[in-house]
Every structure is written in structure tokens, then in C-alpha cells.
Design a protein that fits this description.
single chain; 217 residues; alpha+beta; Aminopeptidase; seven-stranded mixed sheet; 7 helices; 7 strands; 27% strand; binds coenzyme A
Length: 217
Amino acid sequence: MPVRPSLKGLQDSQPMNIRLCRPADAAQIADIYAPFCGDSPVSFEIAPPDAAEMSRRIENISRRFPWLVAEENGAVAGYAYASPHRERAAYRWSADVTVYIRDGFRRRGVGRALYSSLFALLRLQGYFKAYAGITMPNAGSTGLHAAMGFRMVGVYEEVGYKVGAWHDVSWWGLALQPPVNPPPEPRAFPDIAGSPETLAAIKIGDRMFKPASQTKK
Ligand SMILES: CC(C)(COP(=O)(O)OP(=O)(O)OC[C@H]1O[C@@H](n2cnc3c(N)ncnc32)[C@H](O)[C@@H]1OP(=O)(O)O)[C@@H](O)C(=O)NCCC(=O)NCCS
């Protein structure tokens, strides 16, 4: 049936959805991250990475780990990715996780959705623990991590100095799956990227978004 011109724009609009990050997302991701460098203690980076540097980071991370974005109508609303917890061999079943949501898209379930998909992928890869470091205070981040089932492991007191003050970082941990002995080797993300299970895991978060009208302040 032909589409009436008045409806076409609406029918073309893309609801919020989660997908793998592409190099072309680098500029939007750099834009989301930039406010947390410079004058903010949320990230301990000072110079915000530009799009070219962000593109290098995406490429580097994606050799081993998933980097996901939530997108609505072509706009990147937020992103989440995993990275090695520590490089020494016995740590290789543990990953650090990072999430940033664009101002204006927060409290719509985007962080929860991205993390839910990311953790499903980490389980498929064979990871057992996820860790996140949060500069204190950060009500949004502690709220999200607690809501996802993380427990605070401890606080690195006054571990970083930025914007004229020393900052505490709390570390949070989540068991992604029960331990097994011995654990199978974790798989690099590209080795599982095309499987039906991987595609289904990426989509797990899609049902968790809330409409903007339900946003909590
Ligand atoms: C922290 C952050 C990623 C949370 O993402 P989000 O998409 O807004 O979170 P969600 O909407 O998925 O929230 C899921 C749950 O987390 C908790 N939560 C999220 N934001 C919260 C806040 N500001 N205060 C208290 N709890 C909060 C709630 O339990 C929430 O569930 P509810 O809305 O049904 O009550 C987002 O606020 C952000 O990007 N902040 C700036 C960057 C940052 O701090 N990143 C983390 C660095 S460690």
C-alpha cells in the first residue's frame, strides 16, 4: 500500500535501539564524553579526546570487547563498552565496564539497557566478573550500578587530583555468572560477533527503554 506523504516521516523514524558501535559514531561519542574531562572529576582524563582519537579507541577496544551504542533517529544517546580489568594473565576473566549517556537522554533506561546487552555479551564471551570505578560522589552512576546488582568492593581514598581537589573512587563489582573450575578461555568479541546468540544478546536491552515522558528528574 502506498505511504501517504504526511505519515512518511513518522514511519521512517527509528525508535531507540542498541547496536554495535561504528567508526562513524566516534564524533558523537567524543561529544558525549567531553563534558566529563576538563573541569569534571567524573573522568580522570583532562584533555577530551577528539573524534580521531575516539575512533582509535573504538577500534582498539573492539579487537577484544563489545562497544555498544544506543541510537534514536540517528542520534547516539549513549554508549557502553568493556575493557580489560588488569593485564596480568589470571585477571583475564574479569572486565571493566564504562557507560555514558547524553544529557537529555538520562533516566530513560538507556544505561540499564546498554549494560544489560553488554553483560549478556560478556557472558557469551566467557567473562565472570565486571568492575566499575566511580569518582565520588555520583548519584546517577552509583544508582545505576546498584540497580544492575553491583556491590561496592571498596574505596580508593583520595586516589586522583583534579580541578583543585583530591577525589575518592569507589570500585563496584558484579558476578556475571557463577564461577566454574577451571574456567574456559574467554573469547575475543570478533570471534563471536556474527553468531545468532550474539545478535540476540545485543538486542536484550531494546525492550528496556522508557519514553521521554516517563523520565524521572
Ligand atoms: C550514570 C548514567 C550512565 C546513568 O544512565 P541512565 O540512562 O540515566 O540510567 P537509567 O535510566 O538506565 O537508570 C537505571 C536505574 O539506575 C538508577 N539511577 C539512574 N540515574 C540515577 C540518579 N540520577 N539517581 C539515582 N538513581 C539513578 C535508578 O535505579 C534507575 O532506575 P529507575 O529510573 O527506574 O529508578 C548517566 O546518568 C550518565 O551518563 N551520567 C553522566 C556520566 C557518568 O557519570 N557516567 C558513569 C561514569 S562512572
